[in-house]
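Case 415 in the screening queue. Each case pairs one protein sequence with one candidate compound; here the compound is LLP. For every case the pipeline is the same: read the inputs, emit a complex structure as tokens, and attach any notable structural observations.

Predict complex for case 415.
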Amino acid sequence: MQSFINEVDFFKGNDPRDLLEQYGSPLYVYNEDIIRGNLRRLEGLITKYPYTTNYSMKANSNLSLLKIALEEGLNCDAMSEGEIRLLQKAGYPNDRIFYVPNNVSEEELSFAVENNIMTSLDSIDQLELYGKINRGGRCAVRLNPGVGAGHHDKVITAGKNTKFAITDDQLDELFLVADKYDLKIAGINQHIGSLFMDPAPFLQAVTNLLEMAKRFDKLDFIDFGGGYGVPYHKVSEDERSFDFDSFEKEFEKLLDKFVSEAGYTPLFKTEPGRYAFCEGGVLLGSVNAVKYNAGRKFAGTDIGMNILARPTLYGSWHDIEVIRDGKVVLDNRENITVTGNICESGDIIANDRELPLIKTGDIVCVLDAGAYGYAMASNYNCRLRPAEVLIESQGNVRVIRRRDTFEDLFRNFEV
Ligand code: LLP
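Case 415 output:
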């Protein structure tokens, strides 16, 4: 693919220059049609059995986007009291929120109990604490299926090298604690990690979790977590999308086997985050300077690591398109390093990358920025977090979060 933004008509006739002029640079821009399409794909993942998708809102917690996910029929999982409160504000009823925390305080667990929100406990200690707070209650437990997968060690959340979940050899203890507090284990969940394009590890983990499920009394639900990958190299390498069709067939075979062996059909769930909003969001920024050092060319933009942390944090790749005079530039390729405006040498969006020749005054468009983009942005270097705008189906532009102001930045100081 030569240009994603041209191919999908991302801006629907809006000129990126006008968007930056009006809402400030840098700017997160979302495309409603792409988002709704991806949400529907997730929602229809399993058709043969009772199934729900919990959108894992940590990937993007914009209030308007949460409302769109609700309109499309998704439930949500939350990681913290703040996420629960935001989901409530977006209109999610408590019985459509699944709370999947780790290492939380008694106060935070009590908040979930008081709100009647199904909660999954991630360790025996947290199960014990839950039992003390809500004796005789219903809850879930997060299990480690022994297999992990993900785009970086830092986001693999099952297997041996992780803080998450309860392992096979702790199940006896788990049942003892549940009995002690008369807890009903209504469901189990797992999450093996973030971003896989090859479904094999996920399917292995499904197999393992379903084996573990047989040790429990009849469960109301089994949740297999998220992690479905997005092709971050679609422009640079023609990378294809995650193949949901063949995945669904393999997935369903494993569910068939469980249903026939266990003799009952629980509600099945998955909890994707990234897939929901990643491709429907791009990040526009301005090239403020171009320079050389030791023969290497740098394009200096206003997209710092505080605006998009993924490249600095994980060495993640995001395809970049260059826009000049309102149009995508495709020719005159050269090697260039695209950086931000933060005071660290690691503040790099793309390292020594072959891109169309970049000039001062150009606009860069970072693709696949809709997940773990704004959600992980900060005010490092006292920089303002950008606005977020949504391009609606008809091409109207709606501000869904205003840009920070300096007053926002200084609000909490006490002198
Ligand atoms: N469920 C649980 C319990 C999770 O911890 C996560 C992600 C998900 C679901 C959703 O996973 P997804 O479908 O988005 O892969 N900041 C990193 C990703 C961290 C993922 C954390 N947990 C990144 O930018 O790549």
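Case 415 observations:
- The chain has two domains: 4-28+280-410, 44-276.
- The longest helix spans residues 244-262.
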